[in-house]
Amino acid sequence: MALSPDEWAIITLSLKVSGVAVAACLPVAFGLAWLLARRRFPGRILLDALVHLPLVLPPVVTGWLLLLAFGTTGPLGRWFAETLGIVFMFRWTGAALAAAVMALPLMVRAMRLSIEAVDHRLEQAAETLGASRPRVFATITLPLALPGLLAGAVLGFARSLGEFGATITFVSNIPGETRTLPIAIYSALQVPGSEAVVTRLALIAVALSLVALVASEVLARRTGPGRGGHVL
Amino acid sequence: MSFDVRIERRLGDRTIRVAFSSDGGLTALFGPSGAGKTSILQMIAGLLRPDAGRIAVGGSVLFDSMAGIDVPARQRRAGYVFQDGRLFPHQRVRDNLLYGWRLARPADRLMDLAEATRFLGIGHLLDRWPRTLSGGEAQRVAIGRALLSGPRFLLMDEPLASLDRPRREEIMGVIERLRDELGVPILYVSHDRDEVERLASVIVPTG
């Protein structure tokens, strides 16, 4: 199955968008997962609901909200452009932002499960041995939760690869800039006689997703000694 | 006075209340399962906060509800040997043993790794993972980890409960030597009368 240079460009763009999305999402998702797993505070249920919102909201609504907040005239969009020099509108960075927002709930869920699976009694044992809270976190909690955290990241990556609705609403369908794999498949479907292209791209999408899911599940099973964690 | 404890704590619909003082050696909290013995150890270690009372070990006050003193667990220097060992599963025996040793001030350390492994006969286990250890081996490593953290006192929660007869005999010998040779006060929890009568210099009935 030979791929044309255009198709390769679509795949590399998709991988770049998803990779950046997961990298940007990782610290945010991890912080939220830790908060939800280990802390009790007022507004916790609301925060939990907000994190899960992109999972249930019509993606087109998420895209529109991103447009309002991160568009050229949106408050966050202006702040990013002026202080960091990052523009999202009609750019691949915007596609990455949309993918990150859509991947957030899945990543938080997987990471939260893996943090909750860490035996709190081991953390207590470390404390009696003289370890401070940050040290307990760095030497006990984090290493024991790590496979689950990686599983969450891989799952987020897979979700990002498939992101369509919020992306096309927010940053449109620009070849070479925001035309990721699903958007390219959608575009090809609009053109008569391009079944071969659609088939090739769809097979690639299936293969990438399958690899990511298997990797994620394998990693999750390693969370906690002798305990199987599941993200699916 | 090594242990001077007077505490109470409500847990669910019952109240755990205990008062005792003892000098040196091994003090045993003896009573049926479910009498709250583990909760008492947790309160002395700083893992569970008493509703009221006072805890002093070796003259230093660790908790006093009247004076508003509550030393955090990490500063109490309790060598806590848990019933289930609680070795860190992602660290080899050597790193488990050295976890508290590395955090202890040099002046507080009782012994180094070589002395501890000789004392407990665990030199051959250093490169093993905790999940590959037998119950008796794991319990000896747990005792070693507590000893190496430079403890002011030891808390032992039924360290023989999960072991078969020959292993119990072996670990009991280790505990007798701890009691006689190290001079670190030990608070020991058990529901087994024979065990307590053999090991304890003071017996505190609970429940």
Approximate shape of chain A: globular
**In which range does the helix fraction of chain B lie?**
25-40%
CATH class of chain A: Mainly Alpha
Structural class of chain B: alpha/beta
What fraction strand of chain B?
Answer: 25-35%
Tally of distinct domains of chain B: 1
Report the sheet with the most strands of chain B, covering strand number, pairing sense and barrel closure: 5 strands, antiparallel
- What's the SSE pattern of chain A? HHHHHHHHHH
DSSP E strands of chain B, number: 10
Q: Largest sheet of chain A, if any?
A: none
* Helix-strand topology string of chain B: EEEHEEEHEHHHEHEHE
**Strand line-up of the largest beta sheet of chain B:** 2-1-4-5-6
* Poorly predicted parts of chain B: none
Overview of this protein structure:
The complex is a heterodimer of chains A (232) and B (207). With 232 residues, chain A is an all-alpha fold. Chain A has one domain (5-221): MetI-like fold. Helices cover 76% and strands 0% of the residues of chain A. In chain A, α1 (5-38) packs parallel to α5 (92-116), α3 runs parallel beside α8 and α7 (133-162) packs antiparallel against α10. Chain A is globular. Mean pLDDT of chain A is 89; it is low at 224-232. Chain B has 207 residues and is an alpha/beta fold. Chain B has one domain (3-205): Rossmann fold (3-Layer(aba) Sandwich). Chain B has seven helices and ten strands. In chain B, the strands form two sheets. Chain B has a five-stranded antiparallel sheet with strand order 2-1-4-5-6, covered by helices on one side. Chain B has a five-stranded parallel sheet with strand order 7-8-9-3-10, sandwiched between helices. In chain B, α3 (93-103) runs parallel beside α5 and α5 packs parallel to α6 (165-181). The longest helix of chain B has 17 residues, at 165-181. Chain B is globular and about 50 Å long. The model of chain B has no long low-confidence stretch (mean pLDDT 92). Chains A and B meet through α6 and α7 of A and α2, β7 and α3 of B.
